[in-house]
Amino acid sequence: MSTREAILTAAANVIREKGLANATTREIAREAGCSEALLYKYFADREEIYLGVLRERATRFDDPDELVGTRHVADNLVDLCIPLMQFYVDSLPTTASVFGSPELLTAWRDGLTAKTGGPRSPVRSLERYLDAEITLGRVPRDVDTAAVAALLCGAAFQAAYFACFDGLDGVPDDEALAVRMVTSLGYTSPSVQPLLLR
Fold it and tell me: What confidence tens digit (pLDDT) does each residue in 88-105 have?
């Protein structure tokens, strides 16, 4: 791992454990095992370190393209919702901290706009997946894929928020919750039915 990567990893750990306000360059340097002066060899200031964490160390939600046309749509959605909840659990502490700094939020937003990433990425990924399944005739054409994607991501985000609030590293019973999220939208398959408490 390069020195720059070590600094970003250290910064991500400090932000996650102590919050953005307490993620001083001194704390980051201590976590990285280097001097504060060395930080400035790689980053102009503390804000640039934070932006590096947000852009390069943020947890990613995998694109579900490889699931198109495989298994049952309900099973695929369940299998997408489980890591989606973990994605939000992993990323919430860092991204939530940014909202306390208007300047940092603006810089992060501008950087994400240029890369077409950001918090809308999971919603767009799920929507693309459902649109592709419509094309294959596996999802009815009248399904509002944008709404379904937003509902699933919203439910996953809320579950992650509660987990983070409770100090947990993951959503309890995430598989059962994912099944309930998917089936509540009317998507069922033989393999998810046994998990339903009905």
Answer: 998 888 778 778 778 878
Residues contacting 101, CB < 8 A, separation 6+:
20, 47
> In this structure, are residues 56 and 8 in contact, taking their beta carbons and an 8 Å threshold?
yes
Against a cut of 0.85, is the pTM above it?
Answer: no
Q: What is the Cα gyration radius of the chain? A: 19
How far is it, in rounded angstroms, from Cα 134 to Cα 123? Answer: 17
Q: Which domains does the chain have, with CATH numbers?
A: 3-54 (1.10.10.60), 63-195 (1.10.357)
Determine the Cα–Cα distance for residues 145 and 78; give it in Å rounded to an integer: 16
* 3-state per-residue secondary structure call for 139-185: CCCCCCHHHHHHHHHHHHHHHHHHHHHCCCCCCCCHHHHHHHHHHHC
- Tokens at residue 146, please? 């944008």
Q: What is the pLDDT of the chain when averaged over all its residues?
A: 86
Residue 29 has which token pair? 């340097």
**Band (179; pLDDT cuts 50, 70, 90):** very high
What backbone phi and psi angles, to 5 degrees, belong to 167?
A: 75, 25
